Amino acid sequence: MMFENILYATDFSESPFMLPCVGVVGKTRKIHLLHVVGEGARGDPAQFEHQMQEAKSFLEESLAGRGRGMEVDIHIMPGVPAHEICGVARRLNVSLIAVSYHRPGGGGDGATMDLIRNCDRSMLVMTPVSSNMVDKGSDAIDEYCVNLFRSVLCPIVGDPSLKLEAIRSLKEEARLGRIAFLCFSEDVSPMELMGEMKGVGLDSMAIKAEKSPLKEIIGAAEKVEASIIMVDARTEMGLALSLAGRSEVPMLILK
Question: How far apart are CA 67 and CA 23, in angstroms?
């Protein structure tokens, strides 16, 4: 299960409601909260401990109120954020790393890009738009987060096998809606992709791409009202990095 064991890395800049948000998407059993104190960070280290304990309590209470009781622990450490996040992810053998992306200049954007480039774990990259949505209150967790996969945009540049495998897995734990394939590759049959989805009981559509990938994907995301974009970093690393800096839509980056 992709959402079974999540490492959520936070710098406390996103909405506090983002914490329970990631816990209601799938069948999560464990959430590890991590804060990396970067070089030059100001403030009393004890303050970070207090913030993390508060975050843990808020997360546990929010999830328990939804019948989603699960194990939650906290980790605080100094170091380079991307390096420490990836190291903890490997040590805890997490199935997914969740982060909230910051626009360039916010401090956390470099860590997200480094994780995409160098870490071997799949990532859920939430955006400022996501944070704003859940910040509307507790009800938004049920309206937005539970339906995070209501409209999935899948650009197809190379081999689609990892995305198809992920979709099949997600169907077993998340509320999946329509899958939209944006086909750049001439070697992949749109009809076969749609047939794969029909075989597992999912609605799908295929769009033939015509322009540059980044522009086409952003346009398609608006057209199909995508709630999330799925990218395979093994074959689409450049695309993953470009989209992480431009997309208003959350991304699931497969590794």
Answer: 11
pTM: 0.94
**Could you tell me if 178 and 160 are in contact, meaning their C-beta atoms sit under 8 angstroms apart?**
no
Number of Cβ within 10 Å of residue 130's Cβ equals 25
Cβ atoms of residues 228 and 149 within 8 Å: yes
Is there a contact between 183 and 206 (Cβ–Cβ < 8 Å)?
Answer: yes
pLDDT tens, residue by residue, 183-215: 998 889 999 999 999 999 999 999 999 877 899
Report which secondary-structure segment, H or E, holds 28.
Answer: none
Pairing of strands 228-232, 204-208: unpaired
Residue 97's nearest CA partner among 66, 130, 70, 119 is 119
Where do runs of H (alpha helix) occur along 68-225?
A: 81-91, 109-118, 128-134, 138-140, 161-171, 190-199, 213-223
Q: Identify the helix (H) or strand (E) that includes residue 144.
A: none
d(CA 26, CA 232): 20
Would you call 34 helix, strand, or coil by DSSP? strand
